[in-house]
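Practice record 12: protein with protoporphyrin IX containing FE.
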Amino acid sequence: MPYGTVNRENIEIMVRDFYTIILKDDILGPYFINALGDDVTKGKWPEHFHTLDSFWVLMMMGKRGYQGDPFPPHAFIGQLYLETFEQWLKLFHEVVYRLYIPEIAEKFYKKAEILGAQFINNLDITDDDEDDDD
Ligand code: HEM
């Protein structure tokens, strides 16, 4: 049964499910392995999960906890393309629609979509980004 409410417990499940899938993804996996390593039980991963849990608790429940700025890390993790964001959103869509009822899944997805668009804007990513150095 999909979750019909949002709480920290089911956000923790969502975040871990999402990153399990992300790490196996050919496009997204390498960015996370480079930044955080390939073993989610070690190193920077537990802290990253905790950050993401708090981030989504803030986004979905309005509860304080996450105090960072989600944008800066994305400027330092390697070249990102529109395709990278599209793939991230596609996998996020799959996970939230599998775990939550559609009304809630849609709310998660919309938040991610808006933030993704801001990242793309801030990072000055365009379709022909790969040709920038030419
Ligand atoms: C809408 C899309 C996205 C959202 C909402 C999002 C959200 C976040 C948030 C909240 C953090 C934690 C920031 C902090 O430490 O305070 C984070 C970190 C990170 N994100 Fe994203 N992200 C998105 C897209 C992406 C994409 C496309 C990639 C690359 C494949 C990516 C790679 C990373 C990595 C590697 C980190 C960890 C950086 C580090 O701690 O060194 N993200 N993201």
